Amino acid sequence: MKRGDGIPREHSGPTMADVAKEAGVALGTVSRVVNGEQVGEAFREKVLAAIDRLGYKYNSSGRALRTDETNTVAVIMPNADNPFFGLLVHHICLALGKRKRRMLLCLTENDRARETELIQMAQQNRVDGIISLTYNPDLVIPENIPLVTIDRFFSVSVPCIAADNFSGGVMAAKKLRELGCTRVAFLRAASELPTEPKKRKDGFVSACVEMGLPFEVKAIVEEKDSFSEFDRFLQEHMSGGRLEFDGLFIGTDSLAWIIIKKLRELGVRVPEDVQVIGFDGIRMFGNQEYAVSTIVQPVAEIAETCVHTVLFRHFSNVPSLIILPVSYAKGSTTRE
Amino acid sequence: MKRGDGIPREHSGPTMADVAKEAGVALGTVSRVVNGEQVGEAFREKVLAAIDRLGYKYNSSGRALRTDETNTVAVIMPNADNPFFGLLVHHICLALGKRKRRMLLCLTENDRARETELIQMAQQNRVDGIISLTYNPDLVIPENIPLVTIDRFFSVSVPCIAADNFSGGVMAAKKLRELGCTRVAFLRAASELPTEPKKRKDGFVSACVEMGLPFEVKAIVEEKDSFSEFDRFLQEHMSGGRLEFDGLFIGTDSLAWIIIKKLRELGVRVPEDVQVIGFDGIRMFGNQEYAVSTIVQPVAEIAETCVHTVLFRHFSNVPSLIILPVSYAKGSTTRE
DNA sequence: TTGTATGCGTTATCAG
DNA sequence: CTGATAACGCATACAA
Q1: Is 80 exceeded by the pLDDT of residue B289?
Q2: Is B290 within 8 Å of B331 (Cβ atoms)?
Q3: What sign has the CA pseudo-torsion B91, B92, B93, B94?
Q4: Which residue of A has its CA nearest to B126?
C-alpha cells in the first residue's frame, strides 16, 4: 500500500490536546509554547519533547477560525506566463514570505466573471488582504478586506501602487533626443480605461513639446483594434524605403518586440535606422540581457510596497496613489 | 468576558447561525443549502433570501477545520521569473481553478532550508496536496499529504510527472540530421542529481550513435562549474575561424540563448554556420515566437496531470513515473 | 425533509 | 505562571 491511500484522509495527526496529555500539562500551556509566549522552562521542555515524540503538526485552520487571521494574501493577476506578471508574482511571493505570509495565487485570464468569483473566493477564505492587478472597470471592491491595486486607480480608499509612468515617458523622450533622434513617435496598445500606464504617453508628449522634438502618436485600443493598424501606420510613414522616424518609444517591451519584427519586414534596421525604447524592463529568460532598450519598472519595490501596504491596513494613513521611480536600461535597440 | 457579551465581533461577518435565525430555519438547513444538498424549495428560497439580506459570506476555515479538507494545493517552485516556471505556475493555477481548488504558491529560490520550511508550512495549512519542482536531493516527503513532483523521481510512492526528455533528445538529433548537419554537439548545464531532464542527453546520444552522426558532449555541473567552460569548449572546437560543428542541441532554451551570444562573439552565425535546437519551448514574452528552435515541453498537460494526480490520491493506482510527449517547434535558429 | 447537538483544533479569558 | 473551559463557523450523525 502506497502513501496517499486511505480515503477519507484519516483525521490528521495529534492535536494540542494530545500533546498536552503526553506532556502532562494543560492545553493552554501547549498553545503558549507553540506561539512562543512566556512559559516556565521546565514546562516548555516537556511540551517540546512531547511535540517531538508525537510528531505534532500545528493546524492553521483552527487558528484561523479562532482569530480570523489567515496570514494569507490573495494575489489576483491576469496570468503568469507574461514575463511582467511573472516577475510581479515572483517578487510579491518573496515579499510575503519575508513576513511569514502565504500567497494565494488567482489568475483571471482577463475574464471578468472569473474575477468576481475569485474576489468572492478570497472573501470566503478570509484572506488578510488582496493585491489586484486588473483592468476590469467595474470591479467590486470588498468592504471587509484590505485591497490594493497595481496600475489602476479606483478611489481614494483603495491604494494604488504604480511605477512613475509619466517620468518614464519623459525619460524615454530625453534619451531618444540624447541619442540623436530628430523625429520620433510613440506607439501603444492599451485598454480604454484610465490606467496609470497611460501616463507614459503624457510624459513622452510633454517632454517632446518642451524640447521641441517633433513627434507623433499612434495609440490603438486593445479590445477593438487590430495590430495591423500599426502596419498601416508604419507604411504610411515610410518614404523612399526609409522610415520617417529615427526614434520610437513603445508602450511595452512586448509591443516593442512586435513592432521591431514589423520594421524588419519593411527593411528598416534597429537600431541603425531607428532606435527603439520600450517599457517594463523585461529580460531574456528572466535573468539575461534586456529584450529591448527599456524603461525599467521597479518590480521588486512595487511588490514590496503592495505587501507592506495591504498588510498595514490602516488605509486612512496611506496615500491613495503611490508612485515608484523608474530607470532606463540599455538593450540592443539603441546606439550608445 | 465572552465575545458575545457586548463586545461586537471584530471583522467576521454574519455566520450560518445568523442566516438561520434570519430565515427562521435551522442551522443545518443553511449548511445544506450552501452546500447544494437537497432541501425543500420553500426553505431553500428563504435561506437564499436571508443570505442575500445579510450579505453572508461562507467561511472556509470553519469547513476546513471540520472536514480536514482545504481545497488548496501547495505548489513549490524555485522561482516564478524564469519563463518555464512561470508557464508551469500559470497552467497549474488554471488546472486547479477548473476543479475549484486554490493554489498556495511557494518559492524556494533554491534554498533548501526554505524548502523544508515551506513543506512544513504546507502541512500546517493542511493542504490537500503538494506539487513540487525541486532539485533538493534530500527532500523530506511528508507522510500525510499526497505529493507529486515534476522532473524529479524520488521513489515509487511519489509520482513523478515529466516530459519525454529521452524522446526529445532523439527528436533533436534526428532533426539536426534532417537539416543536413554532419557533426553535432550537445551542451548542458545541470545539477548533479539524477533528474529526468538528464535523459535529454541519453536520447540525443543514442540517436546519434544509431544514425552514425558524429557528436560530442559538453556537460557542466551547475553548482560547481562556470559557464566559461563553454567558452573554452567552443574555442577548442574552432578551426580556421569556423566552428567544427554544424548543429548544436542544448539542454535548455535559456542556455541556448547564452551559447548563441557566445557564438556571435566568435563570429559564428546562427543558423547559417551552425543550427541550434534548445529544449523547453519558451516563447518571447510568453506568447510570441519561440526564442529558439526547440523541443517543446507539454506544459499544459504536465500541469493538468500533476493536478489530476495529486487530487486523485489513490497513489497505488497511479504509475510512479508519468511521461508526456514533446514536440518540435521551429524558431529562427534552424534553416527550414 | 428539517432540527438539534456535538466536535473539529485553536486562542483567550478567567480563576487558581 | 499554569490550568480549565468557552467560543470561533461549519458539517454531520442522529432524532424528530
Answers
A1: yes
A2: yes
A3: positive
A4: A59
The answer to whether B82 and A283 have CB atoms below 8 angstroms apart is no
Each residue's pLDDT tens digit, B60-90 = 999 999 999 999 999 999 999 999 999 999 9
Q: Nucleotide C11: nearest residue by CA–C1'? A: A66
Query: Distance, in angstroms, between B60 CA and closest chain A CA?
Result: 5
Q: Are residues B154 and B253 in the same domain?
A: no
Is A330 a member of any domain? no
Gap from A17 CA to C8 C1', in Å?
A: 12
Residues above pLDDT 70, as percent of chain B: 97
Residues A178 and A270 occupy one common structural domain:
yes
pLDDT over 50 (residue A176): yes
A149 CA to centre of own chain: 9
User: Does the pLDDT value for residue A10 go beyond 60?
Assistant: no
> Is 0.90 surpassed by the pTM of this model?
yes
Same domain, A188 and A210: yes
A80 in B contact zone (CB under 8 Å): yes
Instruction: List, for residues A237-253, the tens digit of each pLDDT value.
Output: 999 989 999 999 999 99
The answer to whether position A5 is within a domain reads no
The reply to whether A38 Cβ lies less than 7 angstroms from strand D is: yes
The answer to whether the C-beta of B29 is closer than 7 A to strand C is yes
Query: What residue numbers bound the domain in which A183 lies?
Result: 165-297
H or E stretch covering B296: strand B294-296
Query: Cβ within 7 Å of strand C: which of A 8-67?
Result: 11-12, 15-17, 27-28, 31, 34-35, 58-59, 61-63, 65-67
pLDDT at residue B181, as a whole number:
98
Residue B245 domain flag: yes
Distance in angstroms: CA B60, C1' D13: 21
DSSP A130-189: EEE----TT----SSS-EEEES----TTS-EEEE-HHHHHHHHHHHHHHTT-SSEEEEEE
In strand D, which positions have an atom below 7 A from any protein CB?
A: 1-13
Which regions of B203-254 does DSSP assign to beta strands (E)?
Answer: 215-221, 238-239, 242-243, 247-250
Query: Residues B303, B285: one domain?
Result: no
pLDDT at A2 over 90: no
Q: What is the CATH number of the domain that holds B149?
A: 3.40.50.2300
Q: Total structural domains in chain B?
A: 3
A278 shares a domain with A183: yes
Residues of A in contact with B123 (CB under 8 A): 57
Q: Residue B146's CB: how many other CB atoms inside 10 A?
A: 25
Note whether A216 and A259 are same-domain residues: yes
At A4, is the pLDDT very low, low, confident or very high (cuts 50, 70, 90)? very low
Asked if B201 and B169 touch (Cβ cutoff 8 Å), the reply is yes
pLDDT tens by residue, B151-184: 999 999 999 999 999 999 999 999 999 999 999 9
Q: Would you call A109 an interface residue with chain B, using a CB distance cutoff of 8 Å?
A: yes
Inform me whether the pLDDT recorded for B11 exceeds 90: no
Q: Taking CB atoms and an 8 Å cutoff, what residues of chain B touch A257?
A: 284-285, 288
**Shared-domain flag, residues A267 and A231:** yes
Q: Measure the CA–CA gap between B123 and B137, rounded to whole angstroms.
A: 20
Same domain, A179 and A102: no
Spatial distance between the Cα atoms of A217 and B77, rounded to a whole number of angstroms: 42
Question: Residue B5: its pLDDT value, please?
Answer: 28
Q: Is residue A1 part of a domain?
A: no
Residue with cell 521588486: A300
CATH number of the domain that residue A30 is part of: 1.10.260.40
**Contact B123/A57, CB-based, under 8 Å?**
yes
- pLDDT for A5: 28
